[in-house]
Structures are given as C-alpha cells and as structure tokens.
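Thread: Newbie trying to understand structure tokens

Hi all, I'm a second-year student working on a class project, and my supervisor (Dr. K.) asked me to get a predicted structure for one chain before our next meeting. I've only ever worked with sequences, so writing a 3D structure as a token string is new to me. If someone could post the tokens and maybe explain what I'm looking at, I'd be very grateful. Here's the chain:
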Amino acid sequence: MVEVSASILSMKNENAIQTLYNLETSGIDYFHIDVMDGKFVTADTTSKMLEYCEYLNSISNLPLDVHLMVEDAKNYINSFLIFEPNIITVHLEAAKNKEELLEWINYIKENNVRVGISIKPNTKIDEIIEYLPLIHLVLIMTVEPGKGGQELIPSTIQKIKELNEYIKKNNLEVDIEVDGGINIQNVKKLTQAGANIVAVGSCITNSNNFKETVTKLKE
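---
Reply by user tm_fold:
Sure, no problem. This is what the structure looks like when written as tokens:
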C-alpha cells in the first residue's frame, strides 16, 4: 500500500493546530515539510515551516519528511535537524557541484537521518543514478517546485517507471516519492508506475473529510 506524506504548505494559519491534529488522525504516514528559501524557488516558507515543526514536535508522533527547496542546504539541514526528522531531501539542482551534493548527503546521514534527492520535472533520471546507492529516497517532482495547487505534469510518470525499473534491476533499497498535483483521480497511475510514497497537499486539506480522502488515496 502506498504511504501518504501530507504537505502542509497550503494549510491555513488560523486553524493550524486543529488542522495538524485532524491530519494526524486521518491515517497519513508522514508530515511533508516544504521548505523554500525565496532563491531556489520564488516563495519563502522557512519561518512558517519552522513554526509548524515546533507545533508538530509537541502534538505529533508522526515522522517528518523535510523537503528542502533551497540553495544553502547545509544551514537549512541544521535548522531542521533539531526536530529529529525521519528524512531530509535536498535538490540535485541546488548543489553547485557533485562535491557539494555528496557533502550534504553525508552530513545528513552522519546525523542519523535518512536522506533523499529530489529532481525537477525536466531533470533526467540519468543524473541521479550514481547517487542511488548512497541515499534512501528519490523525490520526483511532478510539478515545478515552488507553489501548491498545480496540475501534475503527465510526462513525469515515465520517469517514475524508469527509476523504478532501475532500482529493481540493481536490487537497490530506495523509496520513490512523488510530489505535486496528486489527487484521487491520478494517484493510481503514479503508484502503478512505481511510486510508494505520495506527497499530497491541497487534495487533502481542501477536502471536507481528511480521513476519507486519505483512505481513497491509499486504495
């Protein structure tokens, strides 16, 4: 069964704690923390996500799935390590070079946190192949990173298939997470392609019944 990582990017601030509690009890598997710096992507969500992580630290036992859409990843890794996340994912495209990316990967692992690499819709799978034995997860963006509520880009489904085939063929233990424009109508295509974790935001938070929506996403 697919796991659901609930993105809180589009969550409304005024009912934040109640919404987080409702998500916690809806059957989700992770809280997806979308951290943006205003440089790698236009939006800056850093303060909001730090605030939400503080709430979650006091009210939730669910693992945090931290997705860094930032240029200066090392500083952001340090900022979010204090919340003891299950995984921290960095963007391949944000690293200046291979050495910097490897430094981030090793630093996250040294702090006993699982590590992921994320790629944008136009980045090819070939570009991350060499890193797969070193990481725990690949996050394939199915929209351009930076804002919630976008429509899924259909061509990204082929990338999921390609990555899944490579992982199986080479007996690697790497999760495939997908993020962007995911809803009840298209989730099956993604899981059939090989995704085993889906990051879902507005589809859940805009629904009238979180539990019912999460159940349908997992079916």
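A couple of things are worth pointing out once you decode it. The first helix runs from residue 16 to 24. Strands lie at 3-7, 30-36, 64-69, 87-91, 114-119, 137-141, 175-179, 197-200. Feel free to ask follow-ups in this thread.
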